[in-house]
Design a protein that fits this description.
Strand order of the largest sheet: 3-2-4-5-1-6-7
Number of strands: 7
CATH superfamily of the largest domain: P-loop containing nucleotide triphosphate hydrolases
Helix content: 25-40%
CATH topology of the largest domain: Rossmann fold
Number of helices: 9
Strand content: 15-25%
Order of helices and strands: HHHHEHEHHEHEHEEE
Distance between the termini: 37 Å
Radius of gyration: 18 Å
Length: about 240
């Protein structure tokens, strides 16, 4: 669905609506989104985020990268991950998606939403929804994955929800070492803490990552954060 105007102009319209009608910004954004054919602003933002230059993002990723992809719910982070995989497959690479959050049906539905049919992904795409997913499980499955393959893990905070799994910090350290050695591109989708909504920042950053258990986030060498249709990618200092 094509928007009637760039997203920054739609935001300006929402702010004007706030002033003229005395309503909250969230309500104004939702009204604008409905005019554009979306149920609410979050869905509009998720579509815009997933349609942003994923091509350009993939070219900025290199074998050995461990990437943190973070956003609040409904901002399009899962769809960005699937687009990265689709773009990698178009280049002749392999793509892997590990999820503790979604069923196979959910993932394929999201693929259809962004115009990536299951047949496009078949062959070079592996989807795993096992309840046994953790770092060791993923490393074992990817033992023969070709260098440059793109791996998306959904999501960071669920890897140690099973108390029998190692601590999250240990798992990320293991993934970092394996990623470097195998020459893969591994992207971990991450939750953002609720407190971000009160921060006034247009985009979250690494300080906003929800960490129920301690993790050294400097193990990630690149980050990508999304919010309201905006996307920011950068290397971790």
């Amino acid at each position: 669905m094509r928007l009637s105007a760039p997203i920054f102009q739609l935001k300006r319209q929402a702010k004007l609506l706030c002033r003229t009608e005395g309503i909250s910004l969230n309500l104004a954004l939702d009204r604008i989104a409905k005019k554009e054919g979306f149920q609410n602003w979050s869905l509009l933002a998720a579509r815009v985020s997933s349609n942003q230059s994923t091509n350009g993002l993939l070219t900025r990723l290199s074998p050995g990268d461990l990437v943190l992809l973070g956003a609040r719910p409904g901002q399009g982070k899962t769809m960005i991950g699937l687009r990265l995989i689709a773009e990698a497959i178009k280049e002749g690479r392999q793509g892997f998606f590990y999820t503790l959050e979604y069923t196979e049906k959910d993932v394929l539905k999201r693929s259809d939403t962004i115009g990536v049919s299951p047949t496009t992904l078949s062959g070079a795409f592996e989807l795993d929804t096992s309840n046994n997913i953790n770092a060791a499980y993923i490393i074992d499955k990817l033992g023969s994955a070709p260098r440059g393959s793109v791996v998306v893990i959904d999501y960071l905070q669920l890897l140690d929800q099973n108390r029998q799994n190692p601590e999250l910090s240990i798992q990320i350290s293991e993934l970092k070492s394996f990623t470097n050695k195998a020459g893969l591109i591994v992207v971990l989708i991450s939750q953002i803490d609720r407190s971000y909504a009160l921060s006034g920042k247009s985009l979250p950053d690494i300080s906003d990552v929800r960490l129920p258990n301690p993790v050294d986030l400097t193990l990630f060498n690149k980050t990508c954060f999304l919010n309201n249709g905006e996307i920011q990618f950068k290397a971790v200092a």
